[in-house]
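Weekly modeling sync, notes
Attendees: S.R. (lead), two postdocs, one rotation student

Agenda item 3: backlog of single-chain predictions. S.R. asked that every request posted to the team notebook include the full sequence so nobody has to chase files. The rotation student volunteered to paste the first one in as an example of the format we agreed on. Action items at the bottom.

Example entry:
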Amino acid sequence: MTKSVIAGALALLAMGVAGCGSSGTGGTGDGSGETGESASPTSNAAAAIDPCEMLKSADTAKLGVKGPGTPKRYAGAPGCDFKLAVGGISVVVNSDKSVDELNLTGGKVDAVSVAGVDGKRVRELVGPGDCGVFFPLSPKESIAINATARDTEAACQATQEAAPLVLANLPKN
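Predicted structure, as returned to the notebook:
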């Protein structure tokens, strides 16, 4: 769990410190109608989100989460850590940075689409064994699902399994 906390904290600190200004739309998609899109053009989508409620008990059972989530704050952003047998998962809500404004340059970044929502996957932002996916909540807000495990592929598998569950639990506007 220590590695999970450190990875989540460092990833969020990187997000809050500097924007990378990469080119891209930064939008939420083109209205695919998938559960989890919160394409509200107004801000404050993040204010309605409790990161510890983004994985329900049925979700945590599917993922093999050990116990309830632990509320945390990372660089001022609310988050929640969940223990796994092989590492951990963190859900963090960033209320002042879009995905494109996050500083994700320390890792290997590629595009990802989960449940019809486009975002970015970042491998090894803080080192081997961590993987995160970042999705827009609104034009200036984002949500991150980060995982740590013994190796990067296992961490990315955990985020791939957790991300659609988190997106499905986002408040619907």
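Discussion: group reviewed the output briefly. Confidence is low (pLDDT under 50) at residues 4-42.
Action items: rotation student to repeat for the remaining queue; S.R. to check formatting next week.
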